[in-house]
Specification:
about 325 residues, alpha/beta, 12 strands
């Protein structure tokens, strides 16, 4: 009997050659492995779907026609937590389970959100660039730099990443607020030492607003011009979730006028960020290229979860973190 075939659907932009080698070296015994790049010819991708027993995707291209021609497919396993690019009803129509990598990159993303906050408050890019160029700013920016201690940080969304971030913020003696569609239970709020606010209340009460909501029809453009006006003058915005949560044109205006002191952004409405983006002309932003959740440690956790689900399905057990 042939070993089950596991196909990796990927893009070189998300999984460069060194990461691909890292993943390939960790394929468990008893499985065949076939990476397929999104830029591969359509026929090659269709053939991979038709032959696959399991698919790992980051992100992938599961069109209706490909799923219809995948009679062996037992599981479509994401190597990411986000699944806004997937048409889940189509998977349900064909009876193909879909599982996310929920939580695998939570620690890396929470740490990155904290990094962006500290970089903004301490004006890290300015001081790094000036020092590297031989300019010794020393005390010149003293009154422009702030501590995280005593600040009110509002978390929009309160899933695993936000909860881990709240834990870290407490170590910095910050007050943590949160908002989500359904308020958490009182014992959960007490355990995380957080306070609930409506979205508008959170925006008005926070020194720093950090986004951790999924991208849905309801959350697209959530932080628009009206929401930005609700925020305190001089506060900061951090986004490690999805770029489309924010109206970027409205954000640029708020940064230019000084209504916001700064923004730390790892995600953008269109990626890669265009070189003519006005965000690149602003001195009060810290930008990173959608890397919050892609540390080496996170890849280890992603793979462990993904292969665990594949092996569970192979032994007749249901996958964990199933979303369809």
């Amino acid at each position: 009997m042939a070993e089950p075939l596991v196909v990796l659907l990927h893009s070189a932009r998300f999984i460069p050659p060194d990461v691909l080698s890292f993943l390939t070296a960790r394929v468990p015994s008893g499985f065949r492995w076939q990476p397929v790049e999104q830029s591969a010819p359509e026929a090659a991708r269709a053939q991979a779907f038709a032959a696959a027993d399991y698919i790992l995707a980051y992100p992938g291209d599961p069109t209706r026609s490909k799923l219809a021609s995948a009679p062996r497919l037992k599981l479509f396993q994401l190597l990411s937590a986000g699944h806004d690019w997937l048409d889940l009803p189509v998977f349900r129509e064909f009876g193909i389970p879909v599982a996310s990598n929920d939580g695998a990159n939570s620690t890396s993303t929470a740490e990155h959100a904290l990094l962006l906050m500290l970089a903004l408050l301490k004006q890290l890019p300015l001081h790094h660039t000036a020092t590297m160029s031989g300019e010794w700013l020393a005390m010149q920016q003293t009154l422009q730099m702030r501590e995280l201690r005593g600040k009110v940080v509002g978390l929009v969304g309160f899933g695993r990443i936000a909860q881990l971030l709240a834990q870290r913020l407490r170590a910095f003696e910050a007050t943590v607020l949160y908002t989500k569609a359904k308020r958490a239970a009182a014992d959960e709020e007490h355990a995380h030492q957080v306070q609930y606010r409506s979205l508008d209340e959170l925006l008005a009460d926070s020194d720093i607003v950090s986004l951790h909501a999924p991208l849905t029809a309801a959350t697209r453009g959530l932080i628009d011009a009206r929401a930005l006006r609700c925020m305190r003058k001089g506060c900061w915005l951090v986004n490690t979730a999805r770029g489309a949560l924010v109206d970027e044109a409205a954000l640029v205006d708020a940064l230019r006028t000084g209504h916001l002191s700064g923004a730390g952004l790892d995600v953008f409405a269109h990626e890669p960020l265009a070189m003519d983006s006005p965000l690149l002309q602003l001195p009060n932003v810290v930008l990173t290229p959608h890397i919050a959740g892609v540390t080496r440690d996170a890849w280890v956790h992603r793979l462990a979860q993904a292969w665990s689900n594949v092996q569970r399905m192979q032994s007749g057990m249901p996958p964990l973190s199933r979303i369809a």
